[in-house]
Specification:
The complex is a heterodimer.
Chain A: E1 8-12, E2 15-19, H1 25-31, E3 55-60, E4 63-68, E5 79-81, H2 85-100, H3 116-124, E6 142-143, E7 148-150, H4 160-168, E8 174-177, E9 184-187, H5 199-204, E10 210-212, E11 225-230, E12 239-245, E13 248-254, H6 267-271, E14 286-289, E15 292-295, H7 298-312, E16 319-323, H8 329-343, E17 348-349, H9 359-362, H10 369-373, E18 377-381, H11 385-388, H12 390-402, E19 406-411, E20 423-426, H13 432-440, H14 450-461, E21 467-471, H15 481-493, E22 498-501, H16 508-513, E23 520-521, E24 525-526, H17 532-538, H18 549-557, E25 563-567, H19 571-574, H20 578-587, E26 590-595, E27 607-610, E28 619-622, E29 627-631, H21 644-654, H22 664-674, H23 683-686, E30 695-696, H24 748-755, H25 762-765, E31 781-785, H26 793-796, E32 809-812, H27 814-820, E33 827-831, E34 836-844, E35 852-856, H28 863-867, E36 876-879
Chain B: H1 6-17, H2 26-37, H3 42-52, H4 56-65, E1 77-82, H5 85-89, H6 92-103, E2 116-121, E3 133-135, E4 138-140, H7 145-157, H8 183-211
Parallel strand pairs in B: 1-2
Antiparallel strand pairs in B: 1-3, 3-4
Classes of the chains: A alpha/beta, B alpha+beta.
Bound molecules: iron/sulfur cluster (2 copies) and FE2/S2 (inorganic) cluster (2 copies).
Residues 231, 233-234, 236-238, 261, 265-266, 268-269, 389-391 of chain A line the site of one iron/sulfur cluster (SF4).
């Protein structure tokens, strides 16, 4: 018998139950259907046993005594009584005591109606208090950050928020201050609780002590409508509950998904919903003639589009599509078919020149998040994960601290995971492939860099099947080829290793799977690899590999593109060269923008088509680990906006073609036949109770373990009472299903077809390395880095998040700063010889490679990209006179 | 004054050296900062957090837990009057009342000249001289109203400078070089202790395995 199925037998309230060794009584009892009241206990935090609400009687050598159920592990033969008079008296007493100082301002408290203190007082409390003394008073809520308010009178000192901040997020910016009756949660004076994860403390606070600015006084729990969904703030795919009141979004809460987010969300995901409510939303199709814009009906807009489109179809390569990473899977499939089968163009790119060669994702053995946290070694070849995939950062940090995951990081500047890394190698841009080579190649002499020596030993000693490479974009400036070759080198050298995608835009991984990148068809197939079923359904596929985003823009600037679709994309802010994007957009005859919000590029559009936003439509999305999960709908779509797949169907109809879809069921019916990756799936299956954690594709016969029933714990996450799974009603009891998911058949030949494309010689697919220009003295090589609050379109429209974008700054290493003779904190100007970026704060960080300057990418303003663009760029820094 | 002076910083770094984990030096560094400024300034707490690798909130949280660490300014002399049982019986309450009047401040308050901060204490283990008073952790007693007043006078006039250092000074003698903690020896001793433990556990397990669980 191995450890995982060992059990311990104990008796709770007279019934024998089974538990896992090491499990706390409170958890074991709960699984057996006995709910013990609690405040400080949280299933995702380490127990502390401070509130004493969970006292139960446990038999010991001297008879029964009161013990905290959240702090005592089960033992063989243990006897526990949770409902004796003594236990009840204890619970009663603890509540009376907790309420002694509690202000009981429930009528004006946002937590009222979903408050564990209120609820447990009703069930277990005394009803009356014997205290007549004056209560403790504090000024009513104080802001502890721009997003979080703290009401110290309501706090019951359960230590949940402080444990979360310290243990889970790793930033103890809040702490207990003082002692005894005057203890309070607080920050250090003038050091706000500015954590990317602060919203989680609001979510787990069992009273109304912590409230979030965007939700304060917005709604009452009993007025909320809710639906399960997936966050699309990035590609981690955190499971959420979307709550609305009167057709307006008011709150997201994190759902506890064992596979993905463990109930946590980042603040960008949690509060980004404000952009959906934004008054800037596009609600009507708009046609522009020169400078005159006029609102139009869909029919008019389609008629206007048909004519240039029909003309352009004669030369399919003159039609191009940029964007799509924010679309649902269904949209992407329909648009993919529209572009590649109807238009006949392969110039379709969901990445904006800031991602990776898609073949790294379609030709490799892909890892899940569980694979990554359970790996022996995780090699990071990506940006700072906390900035790009925040909740994945929490999972990796936890694994590094408590389950022995060894992180080997290659980076241009220290990241948030550096403190938890077993080896952190600082490399200069252009040196990544060479460094990886020195890690995996046998060589006689010991590497001179100690971190390389450590990393080399770690990688050499690891089982290759338990090596995972997290592949993202280390540097947004310049070419990604060096880094892509590094990833390929590592994977080729370690057969059996897996790749976890670090591509961060919402559904960019789904877009690649749907063939919404050049050279691909749905199901991770190359243009030449389309299945027979696909060719039957699509009639034709392009034979020529199309252009990527930078190539599309260059061609457009040359006058080679006649119709350009921008789908949820803003090349002026996001593509590497904003000036090229502007020239390109100005030159294209017909730019069609399919958007929810206006951005820098929409002003070049002659036709703007309003798209329904997240939460206004159903669908599914694919996360970094190829997990498909549902997007729930809670709102009526804004104005005349429509889901993107419908827009594609309309466009096809306008040029006399029929895509063959009238509903999303139709889309899945076709997709699940033509794409080996999606074979056997359906919208019904995705909506069934057995797939609440989503479905990993391709569906394999075993290997995935899925959590049994999702338990909605109202004390762990107050506010999620009951929530509908948003799929169409499941046809329960049909078929046998695969081992993994009820109702879904694993299809061996489909899995084999996906796996057969995994290349052992990844490096051969990539181009040969570029020439690296020599670095002159005083020259700095730019590293462009993404920050979570980067001023992007969605953040700019979320009123509580806009202010969180950090002030513009540049970071250099210690010796670089010393050689320039500038002090940290000085104001500097960055120059590329022709244009300048003024007014930046100089930050000195020992973790930055020599001769490198790290610049934070700004979103919509797009200023950094104007100075930092092109390959082999060299910059200089000037001190600004004060 | 706020952050550590260069001298103090050298001492702080030496203190940190003494611990296998940097954060263990938090409280000793708080005392050091208090020795410099009489209380823990915000800047000192921030510097301590940098030196030991925790957040300023954690330093404040730790410091605010302990009565001997002050995060608000206090007088040069911290005068604590004990009102616990032995002193209470011998007139500690009355002495405290007198002290309040004599100094013109309530417990917790500091005189305008910044000389005295008055505190009410639990037992300070000077019960045989009840009612007892401590000044910067130096003990006096038994005290009556008059002897209390003369103590205050002496402190104010500097007559007791040799006995009672300004608040924050724990010791006036400082090592000039770090103490030689035989770390290697300690670690070795610990490890052999563990080995002994392991050996015992193994022997026990063997005995149980061979002879059944009759123990
Ligand atoms: S603020 Fe809330 S979560 Fe934090 S200790 Fe108080 S009651 Fe607990
Ligand atoms: S990590 Fe990504 S998916 Fe998760 S809450 Fe944040 S933005 Fe949303
Ligand atoms: S002490 Fe057990 S839940 Fe708080
Ligand atoms: S009771 Fe006052 S010193 Fe002990």
């Amino acid at each position: 018998m191995n450890d995982s199925d060992a059990t311990v037998k104990l008796v709770v309230d007279g019934h024998e139950i089974q538990a896992k060794p090491g499990e706390m009584i409170i958890a074991a009892a709960e699984k057996a259907g006995v709910l013990i009241p609690r405040f400080c206990y949280h299933p995702r935090l380490e127990p502390v046993g401070v509130c004493r609400m969970c006292l139960v009687e446990v038999k010991g050598p001297r008879g029964f005594s009161l013990q905290p159920a959240c702090y005592l592990p089960v033992a063989e033969g243990m006897e526990v009584v949770t409902n004796s008079d003594k236990a009840k008296k204890a619970q009663d007493g603890v509540l009376e005591y907790l309420l002694a100082n509690h202000p009981l301002d429930c009528p004006v408290c946002d937590k009222g109606g979903e408050c564990p203190l209120q609820d447990q007082t009703f069930v277990y409390g005394p009803g009356e208090s014997r205290f007549v003394e004056e209560k403790r008073h504090y000024p009513k809520p104080i802001p502890i950050s721009k997003l979080v308010y703290l009401d110290r009178e309501r706090c019951i000192q359960c230590d949940r928020c402080t444990r979360f901040a310290d243990d889970v997020a790793g930033e103890a910016l809040i702490n207990f201050i003082g002692r005894g009756g005057s203890i309070q949660v607080n920050t250090f004076p003038d050091k706000p609780f500015s954590s990317y994860f602060s919203g989680n403390t609001v979510q787990i606070c069992p009273v109304g002590a912590l409230t979030a600015t965007p939700y304060r006084f917005k709604a009452r729990p009993w007025d909320l409508e809710q639906v399960e969904s997936t966050c699309v703030g990035c590609s981690v795919g955190c499971q959420i509950v979307v709550q609305s009141s009167e057709n307006e979004l008011v709150r997201y809460l994190g759902l506890d998904s064992e596979a993905v987010n463990h109930s946590w969300l980042c603040d960008k995901g949690r509060f980004g919903f404000e952009s959906v409510n934004s008054s800037d939303r596009l609600g009507t199709p708009t046609i522009r003639n020169g400078t005159a814009a006029k609102e139009a009906s869909w029919t008019e807009a389609m008629a206007k589009l048909a004519e240039p489109l029909n003309r352009a179809r004669k030369r399919p390569e003159s039609i191009a599509i940029i964007g799509g990473a924010h679309l649902a899977n269904e949209d992407l499939y329909v648009w993919s078919k529209l572009a590649k089968s109807i238009f006949g163009t392969d110039s379709v790119d969901a990445q904006l020149g800031d991602g990776l060669d898609p073949r790294l994702l379609t030709r490799t053995n892909r890892a899940t998040i569980a694979d990554a946290v359970g790996a022996e070694v995780l090699v990071l070849l990506s940006g700072d994960i906390r900035e790009e995939l925040p909740v994945l950062f929490l999972r990796l940090r936890e694994a590094a601290i408590s389950s022995g995951l060894k992180i080997v990081e290659l980076t241009h500047a220290a990241t948030s995971l550096t403190p938890n890394a077993a080896a952190s190698i600082v490399v200069s841009p252009g040196q990544v492939e060479a460094t990886v080579r020195s890690l995996v190649e046998q060589s006689g002499q010991e590497p001179s860099d100690p971190s390389i020596a450590v990393a080399k030993a770690i990688i050499a000693g690891a089982d290759p099947n338990r090596i995972v490479v997290l592949a993202g974009r280390m540097n947004q400036a310049g070419s990604s080829l060096d880094q892509e070759r590094a990833i390929a080198t590592l994977i080729d050298a370690k057969p059996g290793s897996k790749l976890l995608s670090g591509l961060r835009r919402a559904n960019v991984n789904g877009a690649i799977d749907m063939g919404f990148v050049p050279g691909h068809l749905p199901g991770r197939c190359a243009l030449t690899e389309g299945s027979k079923e696909l060719i039957d359904a699509w009639k034709q596929v392009p034979t020529q590999i199309g252009r990527s985003t930078p190539e599309i823009l260059a061609a457009a600037a040359n006058g080679e593109i006649d119709v350009l679709f921008l789908i949820g994309a803003d090349p002026i802010s996001d593509a590497p060269d904003p000036e090229l994007s502007e020239r390109a957009l100005a030159k294209v005859g017909t730019v069609v923008s399919v958007e929810t919000l206006p951005n820098a590029s929409t002003r070049f559009a002659s036709i703007i088509l309003p798209a329904a936003a997240f939460t206004e439509r159903m669908g599914s999305t694919t996360n970094v680990e190829s997990r498909i999960s549902l997007l729930g709908q809670k709102l009526v779509s804004f104005g005349l906006s429509r889901p993107e797949w419908m827009i594609a169907v309309e466009i096809a109809a306008a040029i006399g073609e029929d895509l063959g879809f009238e509903s999303m069921h139709d889309v899945w019916r076709e997709l699940s036949v033509v794409s080996p990756l999606h074979r056997g799936l359906s919208l019904q299956a995705l909506g069934s109770p057995g797939t609440r954690e989503g479905v990993l594709v391709p569906v394999r016969r075993s290997r995935v373990s899925i959590a049994s029933n999702r338990s909605l714990d109202p004390v762990a996450t107050p506010g999620i009472i009951s929530v509908e799974h948003s799929g169409p009603p499941s046809s329960s009891g049909t078929g046998r299903g695969s081992d993994a998911y009820p109702g879904i058949e694993a299809n061996a030949s489909a899995v084999e077809s996906v796996d057969s494309r995994i290349s052992g010689d990844l490096l051969d697919l990539l181009a040969t390395p570029n020439e690296v220009a020599p670095i002159g003295s005083g020259d700095l090589v730019p590293v462009l880095r993404r920050r979570l609050f980067d001023g992007g379109t969605m953040l700019v429209r979320s009123k509580n998040l806009t202010e969180l974008a950090p002030a513009p700054r540049v970071t250099v290493g210690g010796s670089t700063a010393a050689s320039m003779g500038f002090a940290a904190g000085s104001k500097v100007t960055l120059s590329n010889g022709t244009s300048e970026l003024p007014d930046l704060e100089l930050v000195v960080d020992r973790g930055v490679a020599d001769g490198v300057v790290v610049v934070d990418l700004d979103g919509e303003s797009g200023l950094t990209r104007r100075v930092i663009q092109g390959e082999n760029l060299r910059l200089t820094i000037k001190l600004e006179s004060v | 004054m706020a952050r550590f002076t260069p001298d103090m910083e050298t001492r702080a770094l030496a203190v940190i050296e003494l611990y296998p984990e940097r954060r263990s030096a938090t409280i000793p560094l708080c005392h050091l900062a208090q020795e410099q400024d009489g209380y823990l300034t915000r800047e000192a707490m921030e510097q301590i957090s940098e030196l030991v690798g925790i957040t300023p909130a954690e330093v404040l949280g730790t410091a605010s837990f302990y009565d001997m660490l002050h995060t608000e300014p206090v007088g040069k002399y911290l005068v604590g009057v004990c009102t616990n049982i032995a002193c209470l019986l011998k007139g500690g309450e009355e002495l405290l009342e007198h002290a309040e009047q004599a100094l013109g401040v309530a417990p917790g308050g500091t005189t305008d000249d910044g000389m005295f901060t008055l505190e009410e204490m639990e037992c300070i283990a000077h019960c045989d001289k009840a009612p007892a008073v401590q000044v910067n952790y130096r003990f006096f007693g038994p005290l009556g109203d008059e002897s209390f007043d003369s103590l205050v006078e002496e402190l104010r006039g500097g007559a007791l400078d040799a006995v009672v250092p300004p608040h924050g000074t724990l010791s006036r003698v400082h090592r000039t070089s770090g103490i030689a903690v035989p770390l290697a020896e300690i670690i070795e001793a610990r490890r052999s202790g563990d080995l002994l433990e392991a050996e015992r556990a193994r022997a026990k397990a063997e005995a149980e395995g061979a002879g059944g669980n009759q123990l």
